[in-house]
Specification:
The relative contact order is 0.11. This protein is of the alpha/beta class. It contains 17 helices and 5 strands. Helices cover 55% and strands 7% of the residues. The protein binds zinc ion. Zinc ion binds at residues 50-52, 75-76, 78-79, 81-82.
């Protein structure tokens, strides 16, 4: 039973490939952060060796296959293969969630994958490699990976997930079957929150709207209240910074670096949220109130929009975009935040009063 929500077309495609035994040797799942790439990659990995829909594998590689007790291909989460894989103890599944920043070690990792993928599976039908954050692979690592992609053993399936194909070699992209995930609608996310997290309909609706299409974030926030609190704190830091003096801004940079435990991924998420909020201000300045994404902030955004012009907000957007780029390029996070604080336009006292309008925050699940 697939738990991925909001990506029905992708699931149908995979189910049909699995049932016809026409699985690609490599998939590349792309889409924005928290859209569900990693969940889909893991589910496909389980499905490939799940015994519930395809029976236990026979001793011989090409031996007769037992009649499947269940018709629909997918992960069951219950058979011994699925349970072992979930516990990280399935010998034919390797999951890489994060790549080291040391270039030479990445190459070693890729080479060991290349070597192991040439061996027959120990228990399952396929050797499966789930490589998340593939956009972080260095060019030499991608070149090393190409060897596995170009001459794959028939029993190998590589599942790559990346936010964008732009960081990948065109030859890597072209060797994979690409599955592009788009942000699901708020309705789809709300139903998933009800089904998978047991939220009441009204609670699910508000959280779905807050998530702005990031279904993974919404599901996490439903079970972890600190995510909503952090989101609110991150937005307060931005409005404070826009109205603050330089010395106060440096304090904010320091607090932000510590709130987000300083990890580039978490700081990047904060900056992404800031960008969304600033774009919303721009939309309201342009009179497009109904297109605001951070709808829970509408009151504060409208108040702010009355005190700024679009040129100032564009300057702020540009400063945040530059900081994001710096954080993503592994430049010292704290330094990137400090430079951002120097570049952000100062919006003065009127702005600060306007921005302190308390936003409506829905209760977390
Ligand atoms: Zn299973």
């Amino acid at each position: 039973m697939w738990r991925t929500r909001g990506h029905d077309a992708a699931i149908e495609l995979l189910k049909s490939s699995l049932s016809q035994d026409r699985v690609s040797h490599a998939y590349l799942i792309t889409g924005p952060d928290h859209v569900g790439k990693s969940t889909l990659a893991r589910e496909l990995a389980l499905a490939l060796n799940c015994a519930t829909w395809q029976g236990e594998p026979q001793g011989s590689l090409f031996g007769a296959v037992e009649p499947a007790p269940q018709a629909e291909p997918g992960p069951c989460y219950e058979c011994s293969a699925c349970r072992k894989a979930l516990a990280g103890a399935y010998p034919d599944l390797l999951l890489v969630e994060q790549w080291t920043t040391e270039g030479s070690r990445i190459i070693d990792q890729i080479r060991s994958i290349q070597y192991a993928s040439g061996l027959l599976p120990y228990e399952g039908r396929r050797k499966v490699y789930v490589l998340l954050q593939a956009h972080d692979l260095t060019l030499p690592a991608q070149n090393a990976l190409l060897k596995t992609l170009e001459e794959p053993a028939p029993t190998v399936c590589l599942i790559l997930a990346a936010t964008t194909t732009q960081a990948l070699l065109p030859t890597v992209v072209s060797r994979c079957q690409q599955i592009q995930l788009r942000a699901p609608s708020a309705e789809v996310i709300a139903r998933a929150l009800e089904d998978l997290r047991g939220l009441e309909a009204s609670e699910a609706d508000s959280l779905a709207k807050l998530s702005a299409g990031r279904i993974g974030w919404a599901l996490d926030a439903a079970s972890d209240g600190t995510l909503l609190k952090n989101r609110q704190a991150a937005l307060e830091f931005l409005t404070q910074a826009l109205g603050a003096s330089t010395s106060r801004r440096f304090q904010i940079a320091e607090q932000l670096a510590s709130v987000a435990t300083g990890s580039p991924e978490e700081v990047d998420e904060v900056l992404e949220l800031w960008l969304t909020w600033l774009r919303d201000v721009l939309l309201v300045v342009a009179g497009l109130h109904n297109r605001v994404v951070t709808a829970d902030q509408l009151q504060a955004i409208e108040a702010v929009a009355g005190h700024v012009d679009s040129r100032t907000i564009l300057a702020a957007i540009q400063a945040v975009q530059t900081a994001r780029w710096q954080v993503q390029s592994s430049i010292n996070t704290r330094m990137a935040l400090e430079v951002l604080m120097l570049r952000l336009p100062t919006l003065g006292n009127d702005f600060q009063k306007a921005a302190s309008t308390p936003p409506a925050v829905p209760a977390s699940g």
